[in-house]
Here is the input.
Amino acid sequence: MSQTPSPRHTALSLAASGVPVLPLRRGKVPFGNCPGCKDNACGGRPNMKTPGPCRCPGVCHAWAAATTDPAVIVSPPWAAAWRRAVCVGYHPGGAGLTVVDLDNADAIAWAHETLPVTRTVPTTRGEHWIYRGTMPSANAVRPGVDIKSLMAYARWLGYGTGVTAPLPDSVRALAVKAPSPARRAPQSPTVPFGGRGGECPHRTPTYLDRGVSMAVQRITEARGSIHATVYRTFLAVLSTHGRCGCLTDAHVGRLFTAAQAKGESPRHCTDAWTNALTTLGL
Here is the structure.
């Protein structure tokens, strides 16, 4: 009779395929920080909201502790945690993925009507729809729907069925708050793009122009939380187009113009853009 693999065995297999993993304890939550890292006293881990020099060898900092290093997984601090673990967690963003977590039948029905077909994994109460690409994570983007990608963890429930589709704009748009008016004369951006000059994966310039137009529309129609909306929109644009160097002065200028029309200062635009670059490691 076949035996269910232990969480650590599953973790090692996933790590070997490039999926960053972490142990989850009872309640399907990460292990708490050690005393030295409590309340982020250590300064944090790289890629956290507050990057810092932490070198803690333990299973600290939730998603930011996720690793693909087998030597870490079998090390004494982690080995003890894996013995107590009830399941495996992983960092979708670190694996280049986005999980749309559908928590009930209504959410699943909505996804079938609205989202492109992709790899699907059954969960206890619903389904995970998994797309190729990353974006900001967000909870309760609509009833019964969470998004888990950058700076979040998800429970590993198997590979599921179907082919992993590219992350669509319809999913990115879920993490952006909605619409409102204009106010101030725009100024030109003076900020690095963050592109790496790699080969552009976009088939035509139209794809980029359409994405920037949608981003401008999200900012223009925002009715509240303008700072947050501008930042999340910049983050979404950069997560799709920031690595291949295809963004131009004109594209960024359109985004800054839309943000300044909503009352954002040039300084706030620059800060939001720079913070988005930092979050994505660009």
Remarks:
- The chain is about 35% helix and 15% strand.
- The longest strand covers residues 97-102.
- Residues 178-185, 194-198 have pLDDT under 50 and may be disordered.
- The radius of gyration is 20 Å.
